[in-house]
Design goal:
Radius of gyration: 27 Å
Strand order of the largest sheet: 7-6-5-4-3-2-1-8
Mean pLDDT: 95
Largest sheet: 8 strands, parallel
Distance between the termini: 29 Å
Bound molecules: NADP nicotinamide-adenine-dinucleotide phosphate
Number of strands: 20
CATH class of the largest domain: Alpha Beta
Structural class: alpha/beta
Number of domains: 3
Number of helices: 16
CATH architecture of the largest domain: Alpha-Beta Barrel
CATH topology of the largest domain: TIM Barrel
Shape: elongated
Low-confidence stretches: 493-497
Length: about 500
């Protein structure tokens, strides 16, 4: 179950949003009395309530907004119980001051906004001595491993225990706590109104992660990176799992660079079965995978870890194959009689991770490659490694290329008025591949179409690499069209209508 936390300054707004949430299917709502500007009118909030509620009134010490007298706060909580609130949230230090009465269920809560303390188990054992029906622990995650400790505690609990970590590092535990037995998780009314660090919106919990369908058997996957907050991979993979009716969930796993290897070891406790890997871990992650395939050995980097049939970690690079596939599809569209890369002249902009994978594929396929990069030193080293031509960044317009590939972030959201290749350098009939996928149509692609060039969007590559990952994860073909449409809608919400 998802409990949606409602914090508004006016009663009228609380009541309106509570109704709206009930209509959207919310089963439990937490009313944060401390947010109200005027003295809370509990009768007004509780009478005719459209869903069961938890009544909570947080002090400043727990980052709440309650600034008035503590006695007044306790009186309010007692009043909520007398009025028959379904649940009341009582911090550990006040639980003994509020008597049990009627059917109101008591949640004994512990918050720690600094850390997930080493003595978490002792704290929990002390909480169990108090008169509670539910026990709630919310602690700040300072390392990804804190999620594992918290979820272990939840899974071993004999009494109903809601446990998760806060902060961006704690997001996995908010999504996974139900799998380990937590009676509910918390979400916000909307992504603009986060009441606690790391909280996801009700919509995301429902529509992206399908929280209510996660259970003990749910298989877990995720994207490893830092940052991962803006990754579209969870949207894509969860949509694909759902479409295929698979009991799987895919999480954003923010893992700082310096703790990657110990974190992967710790995550074994969560039985995560596969990872997409993004910046900055694509090379470092190879130390964890015993079985790199040819694409990984060629590129020196992996974007996917998955368990092979023997249950060992294998690594692959689906960027490589996806980019080549997208290029071949583009060539076929340009001239069905000449779909091969062999013999074509390719100009590649950039010398980073994406350029490395694509450049290698292009050379392998027998195309003539020229590389241009903003920083000469890096670009020259890259060109030497591939044994291809290097062009100074300023001279990139002089290359008479059949195919132009942008592997720089120039033109990416929010800098959508930029292009890495001025329009007057484009040649009619060229095939232009921009690896950027947000937006789908960059300025480079727009201008290329005006020149009657053929174009390939990075969206296609992104979808194809994700589809290949999906196949590695669950050993069945990916619903590529569903993934493509999901990404399109995610990138430009206006298209939803
Ligand atoms: P990266 O390793 O950081 O490399 C970035 C490259 O872009 C470097 O060569 C850098 O040049 C160049 N660059 C950065 N800012 C520039 C600027 N203002 N002007 C000119 N050159 C600039 O990044 P990456 O992982 O290769 O990613 C590059 C692009 O590929 C991103 O836009 C990403 O969205 C896209 N990508 C797409 C997919 C997909 O599936 N569609 C997959 C991976 C990547 P310096 O050497 O001078 O710094």
């Amino acid at each position: 179950m998802i409990c949606v936390t409602l914090g508004r300054t006016r009663h009228k707004m609380v009541i309106a949003e509570h109704r709206a949430l009930a209509e959207e299917g919310a089963e439990l709502v937490e009313l944060r009395l401390d947010w109200l500007k005027h003295t809370p009118d509990l009768h007004r909030l509780l009478v005719d309530r459209p869903t069961p509620v938890i009544v909570t009134c947080r002090r400043a010490a727990e980052t709440g907004k309650w600034r008035a007298d503590e006695d007044q706060r306790l009186t309010l909580l007692r009043q909520a119980i007398v009025l028959g609130a379904d649940y009341v949230d009582l911090e550990v230090d006040i639980a003994n001051q509020i008597r049990r009465y009627g059917d109101t269920r008591r949640i004994i809560s512990y918050h720690n906004f600094k850390e997930t303390p080493d003595d978490l188990e002792e704290i929990y054992a002390d909480m169990l001595q108090l008169d509670g029906d539910y026990f709630k622990l919310a602690t700040m995650a300072n390392t990804p491993e804190d999620n594992v400790r918290m979820l272990r505690l939840v899974s071993e609990a004999d009494r109903p225990t809601i446990g998760f970590c806060m902060g961006e590092l704690g997001v996995p535990s908010r999504i996974l706590c139900g799998k380990y037995g937590s009676p509910w998780t918390y979400a916000t009314f909307s992504s603009e109104r986060v009441l606690a660090p790391g909280q996801l919106s009700f919509e995301e919990m429902q529509d992206v992660y399908h929280y209510d369908e996660i259970n003990a058997e749910t298989r877990v996957f995720g994207v490893l990176g830092d940052p991962v907050g803006h990754s579209y991979s969870p949207l894509l993979h969860n949509a694909a799992f759902r479409h295929e009716g698979l009991n799987c969930v895919y999480l954003p796993l923010r893992v700082p660079r310096d703790v990657l290897l110990p974190t992967l070891k710790e995550f074994e406790n969560l039985e995560i079965e596969g990872y997409s890997v993004t910046i900055p871990h694509k090379q470092h992650v190879l130390e964890y995978a015993r079985y790199p395939d040819e694409s990984v050995r060629d590129c020196g980097a992996a974007n996917t870890l998955y368990k092979n049939p023997q249950g060992k970690w294998a690594a692959t690079n689906t960027d490589y194959g996806a980019a080549l596939q997208a290029l071949r599809d583009g060539l076929k569209r340009r001239n069905p009689d000449d779909p091969e890369l062999e013999g074509k002249k390719v100009l590649l902009l950039g010398a980073g991770g994406a350029a490395k994978a694509i450049g290698l594929g292009v050379v392998r396929a027998g195309a003539g490659l020229a590389v241009a990069n903003r920083t000469n030193k890096r670009g020259k080293e890259f060109a030497e490694h591939l044994n291809c031509q290097y062009i100074n960044w300023e001279n990139r317009g002089t290359v008479l290329a059949d195919i132009l590939i942008n592997c720089t972030p120039v033109g990416m959201y929010p800098n959508m008025d930029d292009t890495p290749f001025p329009q007057h350098w484009l040649r009619d009939g060229m095939l232009v591949f921009d690896t950027i996928y947000n937006p789908e149509t960059t300025l480079l692609l727009k201008q290329a179409r005006e020149h009657e060039c053929f174009t390939i969007s990075g969206l296609e590559m992104f979808v194809l690499q994700a589809a290949d990952q999906f196949e590695c994860f669950v050993n069945q073909p990916a619903p590529v069209d569903v993934m493509r449409e999901t990404l399109r809608r995610g990138i430009s919400p206006v298209r939803l209508n």
